[in-house]
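Good morning N.,

You mentioned wanting to compare the apo and holo forms, so I went ahead and generated the holo version with flavin mononucleotide. This is what I fed in:
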Amino acid sequence: MIHTILTDEWGLRHPIIGVPMAGASDGALAAAVTRAGGLGMIGIGSQTHPDFLLQQAKVAHLAGAYGIGLMIWALDERPDLFEAALTARPALLSLSFGDPTPYVARCHAAGIRVATQVHTHAEAIQAQSAGVDVIVAQGTEAGGHTGSVATLPLLQIVLEAVTVPVVAAGGIASPRGVGAVVAAGAAGAWIGTALLACPETRHPPVARERILSARETETVLTHVFDRVQNLPWPDAYPGRALRNHFTGQWHGRREDLGPSSEAYQTFHRHRGDYDIDYLYAGQAVGLVNATRSAEDVVKTLGQGAEQWLRQRMATLFDVNQFQSLADNTEKDCSQGVPEES
Ligand SMILES: Cc1cc2nc3c(=O)[nH]c(=O)nc-3n(C[C@H](O)[C@H](O)[C@H](O)COP(=O)(O)O)c2cc1C
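and this is what came out, ligand included:
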């Protein structure tokens, strides 16, 4: 078993968090991830009714500990979503894309841990000062809305900058990826795209087929889908989606996406047609090649990472020498670690 704060203190079997994905992860997916030994989360969009949140929370709760994800920029207009999340009492509330400071104390008073996704050094410092329990370093490879710094540099920057536990997000969809981030010092992996082809998502089969056939080069970081839906996402957070005919035509043309535009009419006439409609997904989509249950994905990532790390350590280090060093150190600590021969 891999030991991090997520396994040893939070009680997870695997250091894997199934991320909140508005429109893709509801109670069923969250429950499946939790049953598999990770922590499943429900994604809540800025337009969602609080009753939906409460219904999905009941479904997830049947499996055990679960989380909910909200977007901070939406909460000024939608305090009802924050209140509903407090009522649901998840184990973890993810408050991302804004400053979590105003919300942390009420979560803690309700016995709820708080996570926040960060995209820069400054956001990590702000999150730590806000008192969050876990900081998620979300790289630009991630599916959905994200920042502009890649996971690997961002993870190193955030790990150096803060003392609270850090989880890595963005581009992690194999045992190697999970092993790499925990070896670097992360408490676990925040997994979204790897779950997008699972039957437990809200996506219809036609959308899951698109995920299965997309390559790592076929995503785009864009504002078009927010502008054409009139969603006031902050400029700092475009969304990473699969490229399609619509992004090919309208990406980068934000002034042409208003309610009377051709793009607007086209988009709203073709919802569910994924040549036009959006499918948020990260660059790790190139690793998602088969329909697998969420349980299979989580267990493969968790157990596979452990196995891969053990094999890798044995290859990187001389195991016998490593063992004799440990034995000698145990026998006589006063001599310090023996020198390499
Ligand atoms: C379809 C989809 C929807 C998402 N929706 C949300 C959301 O509602 N709230 C949120 O905080 N993050 C959301 N994200 C971002 C994830 O929390 C996470 O950072 C990302 O999926 C991790 O990178 P990966 O996709 O490479 O695994 C979404 C991601 C995807 C793929």
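Residues 294-316 form the longest helix (23 residues).

Happy to go through it together on a call whenever suits you.

Best,
F.
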